[in-house]
């Protein structure tokens, strides 16, 4: 039996009330989503394309966490994460 896909989303370290349709709004998807916040990863840090050593280790831990959850794919909640 084939398992339904699950999306992993790496999140910036901030909190806001997401609206329907936003990547951070769980109801935006018709499949399971697993979120993982990267402590210390701010919007400004993502925008600069540079992480501190500590945040890099937290980012790597977030990716490993999502991989361990057997997600089908991993994305970020901020377009500036493309630098990572």
Output mean pLDDT.
Answer: 94
Structural class: alpha/beta
Low-confidence stretches: none
**What is Rg?**
13 Å
- Helix count, DSSP H or I runs of 4 or more residues: 2
Shape annotation: globular
Total DSSP E strands: 3
* Major sheet summary line: 3 strands, parallel
Strand order in the largest sheet: 2-1-3
Percentage of residues assigned to helices: 25-40%
What is the ordering of alpha helices and beta strands?
A: EEHHE
- Ends distance: 35 Å
The amount of beta strand, in percent, is 15-25%
Kindly describe this structure:
By secondary structure, this protein is an alpha/beta fold. The chain is 26% helix and 19% strand. The protein contains two helices and three strands; from the N terminus they run ββααβ. The protein has helices spanning 43-48, 53-68, and strands spanning 6-11, 32-37, 73-76. It is globular. The N and C termini lie far apart (35 Å). The model has no long low-confidence stretch (mean pLDDT 94).
Q: Topology, pairings included?
A:
Layout: E1 6-11, E2 32-37, H1 43-48, H2 53-68, E3 73-76
Parallel strand pairs: 1-2, 1-3
What attributes characterize this protein structure?
single chain, 84 residues, alpha/beta, three-stranded parallel sheet, 26% helix, globular
Write a brief caption for the model.
This protein has 84 residues and is α/β, with parallel strands linked by helices. The chain contains 2 helices and 3 strands.
């Amino acid at each position: 039996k084939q398992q339904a896909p699950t999306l992993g989303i790496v999140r910036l370290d901030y909190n806001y009330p997401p609206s329907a349709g936003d990547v951070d709004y769980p109801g935006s998807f018709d499949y399971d989503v697993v979120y993982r916040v990267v402590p210390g990863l701010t919007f400004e840090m993502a925008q600069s394309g540079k992480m501190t050593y500590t945040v890099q280790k937290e980012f790597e831990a977030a990716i490993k966490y999502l991989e361990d959850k057997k997600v089908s794919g991993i994305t970020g909640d901020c377009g500036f994460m493309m630098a990572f």
